[in-house]
């Protein structure tokens, strides 16, 4: 690890001022389960850490009224076992409960989870950077250095949203569920507050894969808001991985249904593990609207969810896997009792 300064302000405003005073090289830190990891790998090299965990009143969970509101410092584990979330939005609870391990979920925050960086093997490989003899080039880690995954061993890489510069998968589970439910984040910066759909927080890699999030330096995510909707109780987060716990998704689907009997009034579907950002499957949603949900229509919708998917040499299996994951998720969600 490289040396860094450390401060722990007790208000969001003080954190923003500390960030501005520190200048380039400043980073916020919350649970630290992602950032410290990347610092030890010498991929992240912050010179100034601004620990946000002492900020008062930023870890609440509100479930009354017409929305759910999770403040950014709420631990993943606390949201995952919240009674209302478990009952009315199992897709949210499951996306958290199926992520990482219990110990990590106790430390990790729902805000920090949104901003974790990719688990792409080539991004994380080694220390020191290409210029210092790093084995694998990575445009996300070192812009312009190339991408070893393209044309290389790409089993874990994205089949949706990739570019000629980057095929790294967006790793989080929670953002996938949030995107399916049209959630947005509340953001505080020096210019004041703003809100942004979670879907728009994530940039496609294009030619600038190192620019991953639509935040300006110094902005803090203060809360995540989920508008309440008819689709909620009949929902699930279905995650397929190499082992059944403590692993990132090979393919996952967040599904929430609003049904009239067997007929789908509205389906909300998002994919994880297969795309460079949490991926809303609008073609699959359109495919299902007004239709009876059967195994057959679920499989057709699953295929529609992968519209435009393009595989490399070793990740073609993800296209079929993700389609079936969507289909299975639809059938699981439909079996749940509506409100
Ligand atoms: C072994 C292992 C397995 C894992 N498995 C999974 C998994 O299966 N699924 C999954 O989804 N995740 C998984 N994770 C990732 C884990 O969920 C994240 O590390 C965690 O959610 C990050 O939250 P944090 O509070 O610790 O963030 P930190 O590490 O503190 O911060 C992460 C990033 O967010 C920024 N940040 C944090 N809070 C804010 C804020 N409020 N405003 C602005 N910026 C902020 C930081 O500057 C940093 O860049 C795993 C992690 C590990 C180590």
From TrEMBL:
Record-linked InterPro entries: CO_DH_flav_C, CO_DH_flav_C_dom_sf, Diverse_Substr_Oxidored, FAD-bd_PCMH, FAD-bd_PCMH-like_sf, FAD-bd_PCMH_sub1, FAD-bd_PCMH_sub2, Mopterin_DH_FAD-bd
PANTHER family cross-referenced by the UniProt entry: XANTHINE DEHYDROGENASE SUBUNIT C-RELATED
Ranges for domain FAD-binding PCMH-type: 1-231
Protein name per UniProt: FAD binding domain-containing protein
Domain of life, per lineage: Bacteria
Alphabetical UniProt keywords: FAD, Flavoprotein, Oxidoreductase
Coiled-coil blocks: none
A Pfam family assignment: FAD_binding_5
Organism: Sphingomonas hylomeconis
Cell division in keyword set: no
Alphabetical list of SMART domains matching this protein: CO_deh_flav_C
